[in-house]
Amino acid sequence: xxxxxxxxxxxxxxxxxxxxxxxxxxxxxxxxxxxxxxxxxxxxxxxxxxxxxxxxxxxxxxxxxxxxxxxxxxxxxxxxxxxxxxxxxxxxxxxxxxxxxxxxxxxxxxxxxxxxxxxxxxxxxxxxxxxxxxxxxxxxxxxxxxxxxxxxxxxxxxxxxxxxxxxxxxxxxxxxxxxxxxxxxxxxxxxxxxxxxxxxxxxxxxxxxxxxxxxxxxxxxxxxxxxxxxxxxxxxxxxxxxxxxxxxxxxxxxxxxxxxxxxxxxxxxxxxxxxxxxxxxxxxxxxxxxxxxxxxxxxxxxxxxxxxxxxxxxxxxxxxxxxxxxxxxxxxxxxxxxxxxxxxxxxxxxxxxxxxxxxxxxxxxxxxxxxxxxxxxxxxxxxxxxxxxxxxxxxxxxxxxxxxxxxxxxxxxxxxxxxxxxxxxxxxxxxxxxxxxxxxxxxxxxxxxxxxxxxxxxxxxxxxxxxxxxxxxxxxxxxxxxxxxxxxxxxxxxxxxxxxxxxxx
Length: 505
What we know:
Number of helices: 22
Number of strands: 15
Distance between the termini: 58 Å
CATH superfamily of the largest domain: P-loop containing nucleotide triphosphate hydrolases
Largest sheet: 7 strands, parallel
CATH class of the largest domain: Alpha Beta
CATH topology of the largest domain: Rossmann fold
Strand content: 5-15%
């Protein structure tokens, strides 16, 4: 559901105007070989800000602007705002195969996957672009577009300047971070609603950490789908939020559907929504949510971005997450300020507030940008890692390729092997050697030749990393340099074994 207010020209708030002026000044002074990342909390009006930047950039530099989004709703939302302030623009959706009239437009808005397909067919699909604006810049899918616009400035916009993939930090692509207003200052200025936090201690044992660093959907469904957690959720709602328009965030679809069933039995007006819904059904559910005063909407991750319903009064985190970005995105859905709304309620059923601190707390985003690993490690301690069983989830392609051998790979527990080695008087490093042999056998069973073997190695690189990090956690004096050494050695030795046995085939 889009904010219809975005279809009207808006007068910028003082802090928004200052951000526009400062960003344009930096782009102008640094020249073309410069990319800037702009951080602003959810609800701070980033669409309004970068729309105004677009208008002024076109006027000042007489060059085209390309705006990248990851959802069609965001593309439409941005297009409406640009049109409202007089910027002639065109949305590139799946139906647009070519742009014969591109000189008639000053600005283009495109979903990243659609544009990438068009540019791979024709690298001049959109040409003469001077500025590329990346909405929700923490997503890594945008990187594939940058190669086509090496001569343009890139402006990334995000509420949380932390990459969705820790192996691909944002400072690889952006030269500098410009930090906008903080959450607390926007609250004090009357621009954002303040959050009243209600925390409920929950037993998270049983959750497993996947390869992406967050808790797996399957383990979350097991923990949150049981009767006792459903009752705790209902208790928290009835204690704090009865009669409030409420958003409930869950990790998995199964849990969300159970939540819908539980609340319906108590007679509460609730609907479930997930990514499998058609556009028509999704719009119908969101329309119902908008017009129903005490509505409850339970969902998975579909409403974390591209959704604005200012009348939301309560946010319930019926899940645990290790993603600071997701934490802020979910809470931000309740932070829109209205004349009769200066506060909203946050119910935390995932120990998230304890993990990350209060939503309003100060965060050193410059530190996060420069040293993302250190920044996250200070919040996600090794002790917490060890509290949960760490589980690796193979991606779809790996499952297909190694279908007959996943059982062998999953069965190898490097922590257990390590402690067995120690108990039997062997060096712990033997566990690494056995792990390498396990990976080698899996690849050999599939590889057609040496070069295919290298491709399979690349496919399993995340699994190598996962195992070796677990191994280093078993060693009391492990350092980042040691991990780097052991990983590089592992790759080199595995490559040598494959070459010795496959190169002549």
